[in-house]
Specification:
single chain; 87 residues; mainly alpha; two-stranded antiparallel sheet; 3 helices; 2 strands
């Protein structure tokens, strides 16, 4: 289980820029503690959960293989749709 922070992600992005260049194509989905909330009892307001709870939930999201499998399936479908896989 990882404990990502925005600073950690910033460092990872900087390493990718150093390796691949600042103009390298990328796609990203970033969720932060602001995205982990419950609705107020009247359903009108978003109430953030405690930061440590948000961290645990976001770690579970990041560690879920299903998400990565779906992303790589989409990448493969896009490559195939462009006939880039010369078999």
């Amino acid at each position: 289980m990882s404990n990502n922070t925005l600073e950690h992600l910033l460092n990872r992005v900087q390493r990718l820029i150093d390796q691949q260049g600042k103009d390298a194509p990328a796609a990203a989905f970033i969720f932060t503690n602001e995205d982990v909330f419950v609705w107020s009892e009247d359903g009108g307001d978003q109430v953030p959960v405690e930061r440590n709870v948000a961290a645990d939930i976001l770690n579970e999201v990041e560690d879920t293989d299903y998400i990565y499998t779906q992303i790589f399936d989409i990448i493969e479908e896009e490559i195939d749709s462009r006939n880039l896989n010369k078999k």
